[in-house]
Every structure is written in C-alpha cells, then in structure tokens.
Prior knowledge:
Blueprint: H1 2-21, E1 39-46, E2 49-55, E3 62-74, E4 85-98, E5 102-105, E6 112-121, E7 135-139, E8 146-152, E9 157-162, E10 170-174, E11 180-184, E12 191-194, E13 200-207, E14 212-220, E15 235-239, E16 246-253, E17 256-264, H2 267-272, E18 274-278, E19 287-294, E20 308-311, E21 321-323, H3 326-334, E22 339-342, E23 346-348, E24 355-357, E25 361-365, E26 372-375, E27 378-380, E28 382-393, E29 396-399, E30 408-411, E31 417-425, E32 428-432, E33 435-439, E34 445-452, E35 455-459, E36 464-468, E37 475-479, E38 482-485, E39 494-500, E40 505-509, E41 512-515, E42 524-529, E43 538-542, E44 545-548, E45 566-570, E46 572-575, E47 599-601, E48 606-608, E49 613-616, H4 619-624
Parallel strand pairs: 21-22, 22-25, 23-26, 24-27, 25-28, 26-29, 27-30, 28-31, 29-32, 30-33, 31-34, 32-35, 33-36, 34-37, 35-38, 36-39, 37-40, 38-41, 39-42, 40-43, 41-44, 43-45, 44-46, 46-47
Antiparallel strand pairs: 1-2, 2-5, 3-4, 3-6, 6-7, 8-9, 9-12, 10-11, 10-13, 13-14, 15-18, 16-17, 16-19, 19-20, 48-49
Amino acid sequence: MKYVKNIAMLMTAFFALLSVSCTDDETEPSGASRLFRPVSVTLTPRGTSLTASWSGMKGAIGYWVELYERIEREDSSVGDSASDTEPDYSLVASNEQVTGTEWVVNGLKFDQTYYFRIKAVDADAARNSYFTDFQSVRIPAMTEVLSCEVLDPVEALVKFTWMPGYDVSFVKITAPDGGVRTINVDDADGGFTMDGFLSGTYTVVAGNERETYNTVEFIIPVLYDIDPAKVTFDNVTFLWRIDAKLAQLICTNVADAEDKVVFDLTEGQRIAGELVADASMFKPNTTYVVVMAYESEAGAEPELTNTASFTSMMVKPEGVVFVETIDELLAAINGSAAIIALQPGEYVVPNKGSITITRALTLMSATRQQPKVIVNQFTVANTVYVDGTLRFEGIEFECANLNNTTSCFIDHTGQKANIKRIEVEDCYIHDFGSSFMRFNRQDTSVEEVYVNNNRLLRMYGQNSYLQISKIVAREVTFTNNTATGLDFQKAGVRFLSYMADDNTVVKFSNNTILFNNSTGRLFFHLAGLGAGANTGGSITIANNIFFNEDSDAPRNVSNFDSFTVTANIENNVVVTPWGAGSDGGSIPTETLASWGNKYAQMDPGFKSVSGYDFTVTNDEVRKLGVGDPRWLK
C-alpha cells in the first residue's frame, strides 16, 4: 500500500503541473518552427505592484503572460491526514495580448511569493513559443518597509530608507525624551540622511494618512567604538558624546570580571569628550569591555551607557623601531633593527619588488589597526642558518604582481634557505601566487612553522599552501585560520606538504578551509622520511571545516598513513564527500571514507562564499564548535 500511495502522489503532482504548463495551442507546428522563448526576464516588486519586463523577440506580435501563486491543497485520493498535501498553482493574473515588453499587475499580497511565465505570440498560433520556466518573485512584507542605519556615530549621521511603492509620505522619529519629529517625504525618493541627534535610543515609523508601517530603532551611542588606530603601545584613547552627564569610565577584563580599570572623569575630560589612558594600566594582549557610568544620586546604582571593547597591545618590545613610510621600512629591514613596528597606513614596495630577509626579524603593527604592505613576496635567501624567528604580526599583505603565479608570501626563490622558526599571526594575507609558504629545495631547512589567527584569501596556484617538503620539519602548527584560493589553473592544491621524522609534530585545528578546485591533489602530503627515521611523527586534524565547491573533482585527503604516523583525526566538518583521485602516481592515498566517524558531512551555510564572508549560519555546525572561531566576516 505504501508504494501505491507514493505512485498516486506522483501522478497527481504530474497532472497538476501539466495543467499549468501546457495549453491547447502548444502542439507541434506543421510548417515553420516556433518562435524563441522570451529572455532576460526581470521582475521588480514595488509595494503591492509587480512590473515584469523582458527582451523583445524577433517575429513576435505580442506576448502572453501569466502570474500564479502557489497554494497547498489536500488531496483526498492519497489520504485524509492533514500532512497529505501537495503544492498547486492558482492563476492570479494573465494577459494574452501584451504588445510591448513590460507588464504591470497591481493589487498583490504583501509577503507573498508569485510565479511568472511568458511566451512569445505569433500571428499563427502554431508558431507561438513555449512558455518559459516559472520565475519566482516575492512581494515584501509590510514589516520590511522601513529601515535605518547609523552611518557615523560620531557625527550622529543616520540613513533612513524605505521601499518605494508603499505610498510613504512621512517618517516619524521619536526621541529618547519623548519628543516627536515628523518629516514629510516623497515616496519615490526611497530614503534620506539626517544628523544632529543626541545620544540615546530612537524609534521610527513610516506611513501615510491611511496607515503606518513597521517600527524600527536606532541608537546614537554615548561611548563610540574604540578606534583601533588609537590603541597603541603607549596609550588607549576613549571618545564619547558630551551631551550626557558622565562620572566614570569602566574597563573590565573579559576573562576576569574582577580585573577592572576605572577612571573618575574630571570636568575638563567630560567637556572634551576624550580620555587618553596610559596603556600600562591594562594587562597586555587582553580584551576589555568598556562602559561609562552617568552621575547618580548618593547610594543609587549608576546608569550605564552602551558598551565598546578593545584589545590592548603587548608590552612595548625592547629596541623596537617605528616606521611610517616605505623608505623607513626598507631601511629598517636592511639595517640592524630586530623588531619593526608599522604605523597605520599603506607601504608599497617600489617596482612591484620583493623584500629579502637575511636574519631573524619581526614585522608588526604599531597599533591595533592593521597597516597594509604591498609587496611581491618575502624571500628568505641565505646560505647561513638563521638561528632565530621570522615573525609577521597584525599586518595586511597584498601581492604587488598578480600575474606572477609562481610567487608566494614567503619563499626561498630557488636559493638555499635555512631558518629556525617562522611565525605568522593575526595577519590578513591575500592575492598571492602558487603557495602561501614554500621551502622545497633539497638543501632548504625550516624547522618550525607557526600560523595562527590569520585570513589567507585568494591564493592562486597549483602547489602547496604550506610546502616544507625537502628537509625535516620538526613542528608545524596551523590553527584558527580561514583560507581560500581561486586556483584558476585547475591543477589542484595540496594544503600541507612536508617531510618528517620520528619527532615531527603537525597540529592542524580549528580552521575554515575552502577550495574552488582541488582536482587530483592531496590535502595532507607527507613527502618522505628523514634519514634514519622509522615513522612520520604525529599529526592532529581536529575541529576543521573543509569546503570544496567543485562537487565533480576527485579529492584526495592524505597519504601520511603510508608511513607509521600517529594520526589524531576527529570532529571535522566536510562539505561534499571526498574521493580517491590520483596524484601523479604517488604513494597510495587514504580517502576520506577511512576517516570513519571522525567527520560529519554538513553544509556550514556560509553567508557568502563568493564574497568571502564565511559567517556560519547552520546552527548544527555552530554547535560542533568547528572552524575558525572568529567566523570570518
């Protein structure tokens, strides 16, 4: 009976759709061929009206248009249960003789989806085109008519917008003290901006003489968001609106509520709306939530303002050199400076050139605002072992030569390059070549790599993001990063390629990784074993999101299990299953299937993959706690 019921449901749905999509004149013509279907159909809602437009078709004398709404109906033939319902279509409006390339239908319902189709009409009905496929359009709800946005909290500049077509004739703004201001508007304008608001919460409605629409709120904060450029090694600057009677500024350590830094405001500070606090009053590299307290009567609990937050800088390093221009930066690198701090701004290396690193060096931001360095690549070219760390922290890097697909962020450039440790933390690195980091010469050595809390976007290429494949890597740590690449060559990407020995430790956790194409390449690739080694050490792959847009590509996962590697794999999310492709005849591959229950095949529901907004919207994925914990925006 179950199968009979299913067949009945399928047949009913088929005839319901057939009744909508076919008409008597759609028989095959005996002579000349049919007209082409109309193309470039655009549907534009405006209030309760809908305008459909399309490109004119050669030979057509007119157009036949139809608009439907989809309804749910109970089908008694498949049962009496309320759940036995099927979609059906009800004709809302039609016109068989539209002579132009536009049709307007009025009187539609708010918050309703409609389905439009069209065909070209010929003098000979047998030559009429077939109907186009259904194209859906939603008439927005009345509750979506008005919106507003604070464009600039310092200038109190607010943008009010509404959807034209709702006959909006006024916008009414109610201030925190209850005062009301009504602004007469033209519906066709769709919006306006206004400034001069005092601090507080405002409510706004829009409407006309017959009705008002949704209510929205906006807040003009007393305490402004703290400018990251004003968080430095020496001080932190707080700014606030001077229209409020304030008594204190309170900073609370988010990790320790008992750790508070409180400033009693002087009259001069209140009037100025600014406090420059000594950075030494805050713990280094610590995030604080900030709030201001109003004056209160004796014994009364003070009322608080909105919150803001900031993360303090580390303790100022001994001997740090501050730079403000590219010339100063290059001079410091070529000089003897061990730690170079870049002030906010843009640093463009001349002639799309590279920067050569010959010694241990730290490049970091002088404030919590990222400076931007535009450079072809950093090259580590030295025949002497660099017994120290090359560190990049808090900086945005962009490739100066996008056509050079063989470049990468850090590279040995064909030279012998020996270095103890590389650290990349809290950076935004984008638009580089075939690798993020490449050290693959036989005589090249990088012992330790530490990559944490970075955004690595738009890497173009065919090699490994991390390629440390010739001399033994002792430790590779890659955590809390978001990475994606275009890989326009469609040659496939290895993410990590390395050579190991018994003591090698690889940690790969809490990352969000997206590939547009990874055909025929391994994700984790143990290139070989060091001399005298019996195992490939250990690797941990946990709490990551692996996302691949190309569902047809064979996707290898790893071949480190070909060696005696201690592999700790658990709690990963994979979008589309990976298969066992080839990798140019390399060592046999462990497919994703052999990961067993150590991963879940789920879609994170990123807000915008193409726009590189990897905010996860799938609650089930969020609950797993996987991927870059910052949910990159």
